[in-house]
What does this fold into?
Amino acid sequence: MTTYLDTLERVINEVVAPSATDIDRHSTYPSSALDALGEAGLLGLVSSTEVGGGGEGLAAAAQVIERLAGACGSTAMVVLMHYATIGLIEAHGPDDVRAAIAAGRHLSTLAFSEAGSRSHFWAPMGTATAADGRARLDARKSWVTSAGEADSYVWSSRPLGTAGPMTLWLVPADTRGLAVAGGFDGLGLRGNGSTPVNADGVVVPLDAMLGDDGQGLDLAMTLVLPWFLVMSAAFSVGVMEAVTAEATVHLTSTRLEHLGRSLGEQPVTRLELARMRVDTDRSRAFVNDTLAALGEERPDAGLRVLEVKAATAESAIEVTERAMKVCGGSAFRKELGVERRFRDARAARVMAPTTDALLDFVGRAVCGLPLIEEVPA
It folds into this structure.
């Protein structure tokens, strides 16, 4: 029987991996890969079966992201952000959008980070105001994955009329007043379409609100953040696994002719490769333990979720740095793939909440303090 992992490997081998280098080199959005993933049922993998989805959970999502990240970081990040929206849309979104996501015909993404609050997603600067029985949204979103490519945005704003730090909305991407503000020419994850999006007088119906007014932070912390953090950790593991495998092949197949041995037979080089292997396996164990803690509802589950992205993101930085070192000049050439993963690991590290923000959350949790300070009105 064919499983979703079998299907995923086919799509990766036939579409995702062959296009990864060009996607990175030309900052090309991975449309063909997403079309293939949608047709294969993988974009709807974690949607409810009642609307035609695969009915899988976070563990399956993490497996998909890990494997995609090993082939193409940009494609993986687009799917990661899409999966991160689904729990919220399943709980509070309209049935037609839920069904379209399940069928692989609708791609969504998060629009949280803003100019003025940056990575502090829990403190939106954008506003929501009443407008003739509807809501008007105005904001300057600083970075939105799949900007101009997704079919909808899970959009954060200040509350419409009640107390609370934020409210969430499902905003169709073709809504009048939304505009992608510029392109992207960055260090890594160059094909994920991550650019600013502005909202100037965007008017949406009140039923576009996801959950209750002012409830957005609670919803984000329970339905979005755990998925985002665990999948981000799986992304880092995928990058580490791929770069460690590439380094292993390079070191065992490249010979030092004057010594009559391979690079892998050099003790110092072997030591660095061993450290890469240990860090990769340790990070995978951390992700698996976090998933187990969530599945078993262990008392430490919340702490594990806060720790896992911070730990694996920093490990990915170290592992890709070692890969650049042990592969020497070959690592700096595009065809090997090491330097692409070196850059992708660094780009993923700064996606909010950043490592420093997560470490602050962990410290607060350990000290028995609220994770987030009260945001001034």
About this structure: Strands lie at 108-111, 127-131, 134-144, 152-157, 167-172, 178-180, 195-205, 209-210, 255-256, 261-262. The mean pLDDT is 94.
